[in-house]
Amino acid sequence: MFEASAARLAERCRTITWDLRGHGRSASPADAAAYDVDTAVADLAGLLDGAGVASAVLAGHSLGGYLSLEFARRHPGRVDALVLIGTGPGFRDDAAREGWNRFVERIAARVERKGLDALAREAPLHGGQHRSVDGLVRSARGVLPQHDAAVLESLPTIAVPVLVIVGEDDAEFRGSSDYMAAKIPDARLVVIPGAGHSPNLDRPDEFDLAVESFLDSLPGVAQVGDSRIS
Q1: Cα–Cα dist 135/121, whole Å
Q2: Are residues 195 and 176 in the same domain?
């Protein structure tokens, strides 16, 4: 879903994309214990290590945004800036967290029963390129559930620039986007008119312009051909 934006960004800076375990072309281990937030964060650290990248601007959509926040909480020295797209920081209220977790289980069970047909409404997000439906189910049950408010409570401690992007029509994440923009000290909020949960697909030109303008505002972000690219 980010191929077009990634190609455009790659013209100006080193760009690496990542498929979570159970998604896209990444492996889908059979062991359900191989899927949790700790492992996802470790996978991202390992990817950066393997690419020889000490620190990076992290951009994440939906679950990817939450994991980017979690990575920044655990490895602040490895994050130069954050781009958070149609996402949220979790829940402080136990009842809200439990409601989310019940929703996650319903989604996982539906995909388990119906396969990718269960995701027909979100087809542009997936593109039919997943290797394993079972991997998607294990990832949903292992990574999506919320357990505490650690990420939410870490927002005021984020010490790097942050761009929060949300579609005007993304009702589920407009409130959380406003909240993050208010709580993170150096955050700016961009609402993409006429866009839903995936503004990069609904309004690609506006989305790309917002990201590029943000990158241009960052001090020391290396461009293609610059020896400082890490």
Answers
A1: 19
A2: yes
